[in-house]
Design a protein that fits this description.
Blueprint (H helix, E strand, L loop, with lengths): L1 H25 L2 E6 L7 H18 L3 E6 L10 H7 L4 E5 L22 H14 L1 H8 L2 E8 L3 E5 L14 E4 L2 H10 L2 E4 L4 H7 L5 E5 H6 L8 E5 L5 E7 H6 L2 H10 L1 H25 L3 E3 L3 H25 L5 H17 L1
Helix pairs in contact: 2-10, 2-11, 4-11, 4-13, 6-12
Length: 346
C-alpha cells in the first residue's frame, strides 16, 4: 500500500512542480519606473503615466511598467546610481546629479546654448546621434529611451525685481547644481546649492534671497508663497535622460523590447518637450494670478547677463570637464556650441 501511494504521488508532485515552474515563467515581467519629477509635476500626469500605460497595453500582459513619482523609491540624486546597479529598473534622471559619471551630457547645460525645451530636446538627441563618445557614455549603463532638457530658468526673488546682474550682487541665490552656481558667481551673487525639496524650506527660513531654477521648479516648489518677482531667463537647460538598466533591458523578450522602443524614442522626447513648453505658459499665468511680477528681459538686458557669463564660461567648464576625465575640453565645448548653432538654423 505504501509503494502504491509513493508511485501515485510522484506523478502528481511532478505535475504540480511543473505547473508552478512554468506558471511562474509565464507571469508578466514587472519593472518599476521612477520619474525625474516629483508628484506635483504635470509632466507625470500628462506624459509619463500615459506612457507607462501605453507600454503595458502594447505588451499585452507580458510586461508591466509600474509608475512612481520622483523620490518615491530612491532620492532623485541617487537614481542614476540605482538604475546603473539595477535596484530600480527604469527611470528619468536629472543628469547633473550624476555629472562625475556622465560629464559629456552636462555640456547640454552650457549657458545660453538653448532657449527652450524644444531646442534642448533637439540638441541632446543630435549630440547622442553625432558624438559616439557621448553615446558610449550613456549606453554603457543604460538602454536610452528618451533624451530632453528642462524649459527656461527664472530668477525668483522675494523682495525686488531682478533686471540686471547688479540686482543680485551680494545676494544669496539658491541653485540646483554647480553649473548654475557658475552663472550666479559671474553675476556677482552668492550661490547656495540645494536639492529641489529644499527650495521651499530655504525660502521659508530666510536662508535664500533669490532662486535660480527652472520656472516649473519654482511652481512645483511653491515658491510663490514667498517670491513676488520672476525674471524669465533664456540662459540654460537641465539635461534629462529616461532609460532602463542595461541588464534588465536585455532580459526582456524581443517582442517586449519592440513594444517599449516603439512607445519611446524621439516621439516621447518631443511629447515631453511640448508638455514643458505648455507648462511654462501655464506657470507664468499662475504667477501673474498670484499678483506676482513676471519680467521677460529684452535683448539689451539679456546681453549684459550673457556677456558676464561668457567671460566665466570657459575656465569654469574647462576645469569641470577636466576633473571628470574629459580630454580636450575646449574642443568639446566648441563642438557642442557649433552643433547648437547649426540646429537653430534648421
Amino acid at each position: 500500500m505504501k509503494k502504491f501511494f509513493i508511485l501515485f504521488a510522484l506523478p502528481l508532485f511532478t505535475l504540480a512542480f511543473c505547473g508552478v515552474f512554468f506558471g511562474a515563467a509565464a507571469r508578466a515581467e514587472e519593472y518599476n519606473f521612477q520619474s525625474q519629477w516629483v508628484a506635483a509635476h504635470p509632466g507625470n500626469k500628462m506624459v509619463l503615466m500615459p506612457w507607462c500605460e501605453e507600454i503595458n497595453k502594447a505588451a499585452a500582459g507580458e510586461f508591466t511598467l509600474n509608475f512612481f513619482p520622483g523620490n518615491a523609491l530612491v532620492k532623485g540624486e541617487f537614481l542614476a546610481a540605482a538604475l546603473k546597479k539595477g535596484s530600480v529598473e527604469a527611470g528619468g534622471v536629472q543628469m547633473q546629479t550624476a555629472a562625475d559619471n556622465y560629464p559629456l551630457s552636462q555640456l547640454l547645460g552650457l549657458p545660453y546654448l538653448v532657449r527652450n525645451a524644444e531646442e534642448a530636446e533637439a540638441l541632446y538627441n543630435a549630440m547622442y546621434e553625432k558624438f559616439p563618445e557621448l553615446r558610449a557614455e550613456l549606453d554603457k549603463d543604460f538602454h536610452v529611451l528618451a533624451l530632453m532638457g528642462s524649459d527656461r530658468f527664472c530668477l525668483a526673488s522675494m523682495d525686488s525685481l531682478v533686471k540686471t546682474p547688479e540686482d543680485i550682487k551680494g545676494k544669496r541665490v539658491l541653485v540646483l547644481g554647480n553649473a548654475q552656481a557658475g552663472d550666479v558667481l559671474a553675476w556677482g551673487g552668492i550661490p547656495i546649492v540645494v536639492s529641489s525639496p529644499e527650495l521651499y524650506l530655504y525660502f521659508k527660513r530666510g536662508l535664500g534671497d533669490v532662486a535660480y531654477v527652472p520656472v516649473m521648479a519654482a511652481r512645483v516648489s511653491q515658491l510663490h508663497e514667498f517670491a513676488r518677482y520672476y525674471t524669465v531667463m533664456n540662459a540654460r537647460t537641465l539635461p534629462m535622460m529616461i532609460g532602463m538598466n542595461k541588464a534588465d533591458w536585455e532580459k526582456l523578450s524581443p517582442r517586449v523590447q519592440k513594444c517599449v522602443n516603439e512607445c519611446s524614442g524621439r516621439a516621447l522626447s518631443r511629447r515631453i518637450a511640448a508638455q514643458l513648453t505648455q507648462s511654462l505658459k501655464d506657470d507664468l499665468e499662475f504667477f501673474k494670478a498670484q499678483n506676482a511680477t513676471v519680467h521677460m528681459p529684452g535683448p539689451e538686458e539679456e546681453k549684459i547677463f550673457k556677456q558676464l557669463v561668457s567671460q566665466h564660461t570657459k575656465p569654469y567648464w574647462v576645469g569641470n570637464l577636466k576633473r571628470n576625465g574629459v580630454g580636450n575640453p575646449e574642443e568639446w565645448i566648441k563642438k557642442v556650441e557649433d552643433l547648437a548653432h547649426s540646429q537653430r538654423k534648421q
